[in-house]
């Protein structure tokens, strides 16, 4: 189940995806690229009546990123304009050519003519519009240039245009030497890349204030909503270092550097950047300007709070507690209730590492509602539901609590928390063993569109919630034998969350687990053993448990028992009830294989009591199946059949295909054992019914390619057909059994002594 407190990091830079860059020392100036944009705006004003509605709409959508973004090559600008309006792109190119190949007075005249856009009773451009402000900034910046600076600008414009001309000449020569098929492939790739790829826009020089703000806001929004579309960690850090080289006191660049370092789990760089951010914020007085006299103290307390969150993320709980105490002290002195509520939420997380306590969390929820902090209140409710799910509370009560939090989400349009809530429901239904309900919740989230308005055409679909839901979906498909579909989902996860992204560990663990189950089903224990190391690196408890399963399958009983004993003590200590029950079931199977059937019964009864106490219905059903198998071994198959009817329905409704096959196989075994005391006619009917159940079990086992279980079913069917005198069917089953037996030789364990 995903952590619901990942979003508690105080992010002063992000407010609806906008960076508030209060401090930047470089003002706007005229560059050749901006002159090309001015020409575009001028030509757009001239060709206004001639442009169609669709062309004008495309150009308007293109203008904002062009005005705000970094400078780019003229060839890239022309490609972007041509995609919207080819005729206008030609006019812009001709106008720039006349200016670059003409005289200096042509450029002077161009800037003089720009002022005419604002004249008249109905001007072409309003002074307060985005385009109007850009034009006024450029005219003002140009008028402030000295003569030498104007000459340098004109020279730069000529070089800018000549570089594009040389590139066009090189492209024409390349086209002559390239066959048409290769050319078509290149054109398709360029079209797919799009006109404005951030990877191709390099901050080669100092950016203006607006360009820096746009760059930082865009990257921060991408890191939050769609990390794959942001610059790679190394490239982004290079651009940030370039920004900081021209202005070391740019606080927001330090904060984005901190977020970038978190992506690669670099504790040193992230701490360094976070401290620099708050140092610059205090030194420049940016907080004091916006918050009065409280600005200095506010920066200090939020610096301590962020430092606590950072240490908690990396598992440094003692350092996190010290930083949190400092934040609480400063917040109490300043009477900052909002900061105190954030501190209380993190205090609960730290206390949770030591002992389970709902008191802090309930207090946090009540206070957050009182001070009008719906985001924190909802996160508290989510955590409370998560904790009570692990404590075994009824599902209907948990869903009622989540319904209350959903009301907060929809009321305040908290789309991120809506996603977290649905992912939480998916995980809760999986915990309780209701795979159908989990599948429904997963599909609900995947079919939803984000409510949050995100820039640059990015949807909020690369968050932790989507990663969790897709991982559950892959596991559900694998459990039902749809391995191709599970592979497609995992492939999609790998594309959405590359290995260097912060949520990649989720799909890595599920991928390893699915591969492990397939190898175990196929009897390739050496392959399964090689996967244990990868699982252990991602989740130590899961890794140890699967190591014990491999040892048990290889008949290394004593080693498996030692591992399971250690794991049981550890899981009981950390109160991981789900794993405790799984370990108890595995230990019971070890006792069966060691012919200690009476010892297995108390272990199974303990597992059943835990499963029912914590409302883990599916694990309870699986435990009942194991109890029925114990009764079969102890010679009371009638009683085993009676309790099987209690447990088999949830298994067939929500269970994995392998569990369904094992359940039907067990029913057939109990029917055959019970038929010994029947009359001849009734015995024949019981055996024929058992054969039908074996056919169903065989279908399930074939679906997941479980060859060992298929071999056991074929052996059992051959014996039954022999008893019924059906020679042809017996010989067919015997032949199939022999083929599998040669492929998977037995390890000397009687077939009756294994439930799964």
From TrEMBL:
Give the pathway listed in the UniProt entry for this protein: Protein modification; protein ubiquitination
Q: What is its main location?
A: cytoplasm
Name the keywords, alphabetized.
Answer: Cell cycle, Cell division, Cytoplasm, Cytoskeleton, Mitosis, Nucleus, Phosphoprotein, Repeat, TPR repeat, Ubl conjugation pathway
In this chain the Anaphase-promoting complex subunit domain maps to 254-353
The Gene Ontology CC terms held by the record are: anaphase-promoting complex; spindle
By its UniProt entry, which InterPro entries does this protein fall under?
A: Apc5, Apc5_dom, Apc5_N, TPR-like_helical_dom_sf, TPR_rpt
Q: Where is the Anaphase-promoting complex subunit 5 N-terminal domain?
A: 30-167
Write out the GO biological process terms: anaphase-promoting complex-dependent catabolic process; cell division; positive regulation of mitotic metaphase/anaphase transition; protein K11-linked ubiquitination
Q: Does the keyword Lipid biosynthesis apply?
A: no
Q: Which Gene3D superfamilies does the UniProt record give? A: Tetratricopeptide repeat domain
Subcellular location field: Cytoplasm, Cytoskeleton, Spindle; Nucleus
Keyword Nucleus attributed: yes
SMART domains for this protein:
TPR
Pfam families documented for this protein: ANAPC5, Apc5_N
The highest taxon in the source lineage is: Eukaryota
What job does this protein perform? Component of the anaphase promoting complex/cyclosome (APC/C), a cell cycle-regulated E3 ubiquitin ligase that controls progression through mitosis and the G1 phase of the cell cycle. The APC/C complex acts by mediating ubiquitination and subsequent degradation of target proteins: it mainly mediates the formation of 'Lys-11'-linked polyubiquitin chains and, to a lower extent, the formation of 'Lys-48'- and 'Lys-63'-linked polyubiquitin chains. The APC/C complex catalyzes assembly of branched 'Lys-11'-/'Lys-48'-linked branched ubiquitin chains on target proteins.
User: What family does the entry list?
Assistant: Belongs to the APC5 family.
Q: What is this protein called?
A: Anaphase-promoting complex subunit 5
The protein's organism comes out as: Daphoenositta chrysoptera (varied sittella)
């Amino acid at each position: 189940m995903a952590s619901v407190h990942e979003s508690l990091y105080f992010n002063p830079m992000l407010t609806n995806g906008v960076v508030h860059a209060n401090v930047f020392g470089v003002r706007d100036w005229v560059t050749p690229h901006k002159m090309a944009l001015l020409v575009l705006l001028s030509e757009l004003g001239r060709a206004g009546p001639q442009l169609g509605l669709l062309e004008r709409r495309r150009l308007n959508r293109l203008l904002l990123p062009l005005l705000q973004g970094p400078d780019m090559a003229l060839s890239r600008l022309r490609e972007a304009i041509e995609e919207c309006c080819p005729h206008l792109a030609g006019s812009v190119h001709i106008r720039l050519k006349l200016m670059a190949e003409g005289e200096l007075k042509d450029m002077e005249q161009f800037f003089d003519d720009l002022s005419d856009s604002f004249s008249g009773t109905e001007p072409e451009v309003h002074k307060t519009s985005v385009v109007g402000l850009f034009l006024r900034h450029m005219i003002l910046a140009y008028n402030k240039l000295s003569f030498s600076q104007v000459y340098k600008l004109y020279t730069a414009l000529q070089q800018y245009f000549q570089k594009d001309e040389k590139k066009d000449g090189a492209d024409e020569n390349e086209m002559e030497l390239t066959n048409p098929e290769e050319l078509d492939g290149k054109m398709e790739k360029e079209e797919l890349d799009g006109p404005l790829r951030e990877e191709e826009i390099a901050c080669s020089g100092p950016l203006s204030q607006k360009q820096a703000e746009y760059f930082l806001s865009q990257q921060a929004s991408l890191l939050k909503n769609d990390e794959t579309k942001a610059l790679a960690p190394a490239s982004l850090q290079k651009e940030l270092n370039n920004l900081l080289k021209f202005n070391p006191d740019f606080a927001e660049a330090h904060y984005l550097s901190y977020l970038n370092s978190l992506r690669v789990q670099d504790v040193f760089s992230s701490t360094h950047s976070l401290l620099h951010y708050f140092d610059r914020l205090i030194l420049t007085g940016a907080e004091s300007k916006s918050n009065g006299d409280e600005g200095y103290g506010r920066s200090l307390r939020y610096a301590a709070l962020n430092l606590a969150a950072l240490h908690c993320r990396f598992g440094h709980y003692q350092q996190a507690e010290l930083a949190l105490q400092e934040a609480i002290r400063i917040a109490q002195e300043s009477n900052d209730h909002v900061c105190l509520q954030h501190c209380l939420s993190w205090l609960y997380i730290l206390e949770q590492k030591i002992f389970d306590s709902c008191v802090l969390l309930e207090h946090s929820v009540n206070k957050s509602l009182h001070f009008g902090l719906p985001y924190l209140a909802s996160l508290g409710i989510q955590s409370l539901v998560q904790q009570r799910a692990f404590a075994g509370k009824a599902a209907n009560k948990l869903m009622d609590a989540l319904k209350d939090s959903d009301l907060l989400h929809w009321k305040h349009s908290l789309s991120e928390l809506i996603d977290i809530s649905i992912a939480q429901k998916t995980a809760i239904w999986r915990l309780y063993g209701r795979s159908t309900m989990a599948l429904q919740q997963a599909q609900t989230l995947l079919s939803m569109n984000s409510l949050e308005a995100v820039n640059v055409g990015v949807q909020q679909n690369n968050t932790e919630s989507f990663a969790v839901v897709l991982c559950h979906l892959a596991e559900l498909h694998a459990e039902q034998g749809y391995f191709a579909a599970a592979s497609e989902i995992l492939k999609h996860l790998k594309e959405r969350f590359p290995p260097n992204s912060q949520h990649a560990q989720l799909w890595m663990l599920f991928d390893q687990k699915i591969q492990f189950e397939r190898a175990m089903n196929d009897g390739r224990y050496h392959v399964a053993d090689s996967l244990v190391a990868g699982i252990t690196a991602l989740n130590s408890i899961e890794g140890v448990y699967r190591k014990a399963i491999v040892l048990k399958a290889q008949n290394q009983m004593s080693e498996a028992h030692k591992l399971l004993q250690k794991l049981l003590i550890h899981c009981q200590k950390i109160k991981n009830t789900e794993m405790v029950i799984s370990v108890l079931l595995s230990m019971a199977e070890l006792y069966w294989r060691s012919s200690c059937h009476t010892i297995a019964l108390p272990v199974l009864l303990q597992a059943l009591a835990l499963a029912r106490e914590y409302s883990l219905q599916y694990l309870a059903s699986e435990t009942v199946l194991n109890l029925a198998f114990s009764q079969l071994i102890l010679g009371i198959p009638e009683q085993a059949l009676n309790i099987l009817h209690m447990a088999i329905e949830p298994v067939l409704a929500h269970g994995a295909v392998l569990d369904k096959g094992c359940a039907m196989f067990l029913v057939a075994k109990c029917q055959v054992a019970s038929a010994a005391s029947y009359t001849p006619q009734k015995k024949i009917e019981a055996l024929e019914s058992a054969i039908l159940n074996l056919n169903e079990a065989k279908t399930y086992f074939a679906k997941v390619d479980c060859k060992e279980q298929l071999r056991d079913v074929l052996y059992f069917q051959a014996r039954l057909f022999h008893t019924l005198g059906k020679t042809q069917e017996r010989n067919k089953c015997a032949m199939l059994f022999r083929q599998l037996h040669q492929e998977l030789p037995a390890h000397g364990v009687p077939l009756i002594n294994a439930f799964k």
